Amino acid sequence: MKSKTKFSNNVPSQWCPGCPNHLILKALQNGLEELELTPQEVCLVSGIGQAAKLPHYLKGNFFNGLHGRALPVATGIKLANPKLKVIVTTGDGDCYGEGGNHFLHTLRRNPDITLLVHNNSIYALTKGQASPTTPKGEKRALNPRGVEDEPLNPLALALIQGTGFVARCSALEIEHLKEVIKEAINYPGLAYVDILQPCISWLKPSLETLKKETFFLSHDPQDFEQALKIALDPAQKWGLGIIYKNPWPKPVLGEGFYQHFSLEQLTHLPPLDLTIAQNLLKAH
Amino acid sequence: MKELTISLVGSAGEGLDSIGSLFSTVLAEHKYALFSWKEYESRVRGGFNSYHLKISSQPQNYPREQSDLLLALNPEAQDKYTSLLKPSGLLIGPKENSRFQSLVLSFKDLAKKELGNSLYANAIALGFLTGILKLKLELLLEALQKKFATKSLAIINNNLEGARLGYGQALDSSLNLTLPPSGEHNYFFTTGHPATALGAARAGCHFMAAYPMTPSTGLITYLSQKQEELKVFTLQAEDEIAAINLALGASFAGVRSMTATSGGGFALMVESISLAGMTETPVVIVLAQRPGPATGLPTRTAQGDLLFAIFAGHGEFPKVVFAPSDPEELYLKTIKAFNLAYKYQLPAIILTDQFLADSNFSYWDFNWEGETPQFFRANPSEFKEYKRYQFTPSGISPRLCPGQSVHLVGADSDEHDEWGHITEELDKVAKPMLEKRLNKLKELQKEIAPPLEVDIADSKYIFISFGSTKESVLAAQKHLRTKGEKVGVIHFSELWPLPSYSFPQNALLITVENNATAQLAKLLNLGYSLNLKHSILKYNGLPLTPEEIGRKFDEIQNQI
Ligand SMILES: Cc1ncc(C[n+]2csc(CCOP(=O)(O)OP(=O)(O)O)c2C)c(N)n1
Ligand code: SF4
Ligand SMILES: [Mg+2]
Question: Which residues 27-56 of chain A have a CB within 8 Å of chain B?
């Protein structure tokens, strides 16, 4: 994989040397280049966290917003200008914790955006507290007796809410990750990829362990029941691949409005005509 | 007689609104100006509601404390609201009352008896009102026919029959009420929300995301229902945080965007208002106030969020806060709010309240062209290298949008450099970037309109007010002048940044506010180094009337 693409920039990274976030960045840059997209067509959106810093290190448009709030911003951007390829890069804390409500409702809403979650099962930037995907029992600074809450199963959640594209990848399987990202970007509708991203500073499992545990799934990703089984099965929690891809994509958010008004984008529409405003107010 | 006031009282679900609005149509056809306001409980059925109509030859857009006619739809409501009737007033309702000139009449019983269904009580009440004021029955029948056009013939006929019946009852009663002479114009009536919505659309807004909360719900409903004409994409968000972030995303991508909410929802938006300030993403937020704290009184009115709005957001950044006084100003100031938000790239907040949201104001001349949409798009071909947060003398960086041109656009909620990338360079980048944003205030302040001044030259006393209390304050002032009191008014509709203004030195300044803690006085003391000590305050969830202002003015006069 190329280390320099047209999506490379020279902003110095704030990530720890050797962090697998660098690999996710590389897979994304190469994927975008292989899709023959230009930086101008791409808009990255993130919240706050280590993962959420990614948009700074990739040449493209970007909106790095508040902790937890990437999804509504991304949805707004896509609704305003559907020509943009909108990609959210977020963490497990950002997306499943602080932004959990937006995650839930974005699954229902189906905007045509790509959601990449760097899932390290930890709040890395704030120095290693538990996240919604931290395993039960793990001792963390704010959980001296061990985490007592059940971990979230975001993949199963996405499936039962009807998400059209659901995948699990590993930051350490970068070729595979790149291919899945490409397919996700091309998918019409919400495409969601949970990326196992070991944090080498705050988390126990070493890179080698993760590498050993993961395996590639071989089921038919169009089979919803099989997909749900995989998502719910603890024995398959290291299974990588597209878990589900609905071959009949649902209408995307905003489609009806755009079709009704024969619009291509909302930007640069003229303001309301004065006489229409007058008639409407008087008719009220 | 210069005006006639009518109070319709009943319970939720009894159709006071539809009586009020149909009767308004009849009055408009007779060239009357009309003001109506209502108060109601936060429930769908039962409880107590009242709907007040003031009929005059010329617009008098403010509430009165008492009415000339009270029409009660049920006995409990009659008991609760008789205090709203003037001693000389006329009482129509199901119960005997010897204190007033009255007629015992149960519209429901009559409807059941004559038309077989108490549902037609409202048609009878409408007929009665039309009859007692000697208005044309045909106009009411026409309005009813229009309203029920899609219903079955039986329903239409029963409504018409009910109206005739009520009309006949009024004539038979030989009770008499005199209307003021009719006016010279065909007035039109509007509440605040449509005016705000149309101001937004006129300003070029094409995106609105919101979460319902009384009293802002009417606004977002209007925008959603009128999508066809307005071409505004509307979205019901999962919460207010999502709502404002959706609007910010759309705005960043190049569409004028807004959201609307009430106090609790606004509280949830506050972090994102700061985000708008930091990322310099324009957005317009309508804050329709109701009494707090917390859930407060959901369906009542207040001006209790003034300071909260002005100081909303962590960190230091510029914003705009307007408090329009009536529908016309809501229309105009909404356009101006969009213009300023997009020119200076910051959040603009429009304060309104339940009173403005639900009251009908009369107009015949409306200042449609007082504000026009202005756009401040930068030209991409002017830049060799584009920097979203370029340092400039005014602090305003040229704004391009993603996907608009070859230039890439970045925005960041972290402190950032000119390209929008995270910075930890404190003195070289972070400090000047904060100053850049605050610098915008200098030019911005010059665009803020000074307050309206009325009769201040010779005044001994001056009322200072803001937003929706304007017409009541002006009516009180006028009345006090006729009694020989030298009273003037200074009224603010644009509140932040505070306009440059010198207060008169020799008058006693009294703020008039719909809140408990004299927030306007506090704000002006801070902003203009004043020492305001006197305020007329009302905070029971109801709007201020000229009568109350007059009484409280007397109290203040007696104290000093
Ligand atoms: C409103 C708010 N609350 C808390 C924080 C502090 N904070 C920043 S990042 C973060 C957690 C990030 O976790 P995650 O999304 O998993 O990202 P990671 O650093 O692990 O990649 C927290 C709690 C914040 N910035 N804003
Ligand atoms: S703290 Fe962990 S997740 Fe963050 S950059 Fe370092 S290794 Fe990566
Ligand atoms: Mg994390």
Answer: 39-41, 43, 45, 48, 53, 55-56
